[in-house]
Specification:
heterodimer, A: 111 residues, alpha+beta, Potassium Channel Kv1.1, Chain A, 2 domains, 4 helices, 14% strand, B: mainly alpha, 48% helix
Chain lengths: 111, 187
């Protein structure tokens, strides 16, 4: 019972000759290490996909360049509208953008 | 004579049993091995397909990348931005590396001038790029420790280091014992 288990699915082998036990257990160990690595690579790629997705979501026309009394800033409309009820959010409200035809005007002047 | 026959039979049974048990385990191991190799192969195919669909197959370290960091324009070589490739091992990239690797070039959001657009604090992002620049030209024993920035921005910078997966890069020994908390501005 006290024997260290390599994995719940593949307990350490001790019923064969010493050399064979060792060889089998070594292979289990490296297989489980490889499994961990493969899982981590798969997760890493999934994370990469999600990360890129979260960064690149949105439309090019929602990138807004602002001229705030001379300082140029660029951001997305989603960022400007993060706080829903704010005046800032209202200013960049979807409907108003369309009404003002600002999609074609890249720079917004704020004083 | 009978005794010998029964002993022989016993030996034969024991040997067969031994062989069967050993064979079972080896078979089990071989199956696990081929399953894992299959998973690796699938992952590689998926990555390749993804690059073909969303990326630039001819990405080179010498490409000049232009970034629009919320209004601040930053230019750097792809090789500089992508030098910190791995977290655990060399095949696993950081998010920062992923972003500029070329694997996602077609998918990334771009501004009107075709620059990669990131809605981030420009100065903080610049600090990371400056740090990578310095890292690229520094000698082994004189690595810059962390990106530096004025105190006000330290919490944001620390957050970005986390976001971009740059807080633990063990394969660069000089970076191993970094105190990233130094970036959190809590002092």
């Amino acid at each position: 019972m006290e024997a260290p288990e390599v994995n719940p699915k593949s307990p350490e082998v001790d019923k064969f000759a010493k050399e064979i036990n060792e060889a089998i257990n070594e292979k289990w160990k490296s297989l489980h290490a490889l499994e961990e690595e493969v899982t981590s690579l798969e997760e890493s790629f999934k994370d990469e996909e999600h990360f890129i997705e979260s960064l690149s979501s949105g439309d090019k026309k929602n990138i807004k360049t602002l001229n705030v009394s001379g300082t140029m800033m660029t951001t997305t409309r989603a960022t400007l509208m993060t706080v829903e009820e704010s005046v800032l959010a209202q200013q960049f409200d979807d409907t108003k953008w369309t009404e003002q035809g600002n999609i074609n005007t890249p720079k917004v002047k704020l004083m | 004579m009978d005794q010998l026959e029964s002993a022989k039979k016993k030996l034969k049974t024991a040997l067969d049993e031994h062989e069967r048990a050993c064979g079972d385990i080896i078979h089990e191991q071989d199956e696990m091995e081929s399953k894992l190799l299959e998973r690796l192969k699938l992952l590689d195919e998926k990555k390749l397909k993804c690059t073909a669909e969303n990326g630039n197959m001819n990405a080179s370290d010498n490409d000049l990348i232009e970034i629009n960091a919320a209004g601040k324009i930053i230019a750097a070589k792809r090789g500089t931005l992508c030098q910190l490739k791995g977290m655990k091992n060399l095949t696993k990239g950081t998010r920062f590396e992923a972003l500029f690797s070329g694997r996602w070039d077609k998918k990334l959001l771009r501004d009107g001038s075709g620059r990669i657009f990131l809605d981030v604090h420009g100065d903080c992002f610049q600090a990371i790029v400056d740090y990578l620049n310095e890292l690229a030209i520094s000698s082994e024993d004189k690595r810059p420790k962390t990106p530096t920035i004025e105190d006000d921005c330290k919490p944001i910078l620390a957050q970005y280091m986390m976001l971009f997966g740059l807080t633990a890069i063990p394969q660069i020994p000089q970076l191993k014992h970094l105190d990233w908390n130094a970036c959190d501005g809590s002092t």
